[in-house]
Amino acid sequence: MAAMPEKIDGPIEPGQVAGIAGEKDVPLPAYSDADALSKENQGPLEIAEEIITHVIHVDDDPTLSPWTFRMFFIGLGLSGFGAVLQETIYFKPQVISVMFLTVLAQTLGTAMSTFIPRKGPIGRFLNPFPWNRTEHTAAVSGISCIGLCFYGGYPNQVAGIFITLSSQLIGYGVAGIMRTVLVNPTKMLYPINLPITTVMETLHKPKAETKQRFQVFWLVFVAVFCWEWFPEVLHLPTLSAVSIFCLANQNSLVFTNLFGGSQGNEGMGLLSVCFDWNNIARFGSPLWMPLQTLINSFIGYLGGIAISMVLYYGNVWRAMDFPFMSQLLYDQSSNSTSYVQYDEAAIMNADFTVNSPLVDQTGAPYLTATYVNYLITSNAGLTATIVHMLLWNYAEVSLGWSWITLKGLKKLLDPSLYMFWRHTGVRTEEDKERIRQNPTIDPH
Question: Full-prediction pTM beyond 0.85?
Answer without folding.
Answer: no
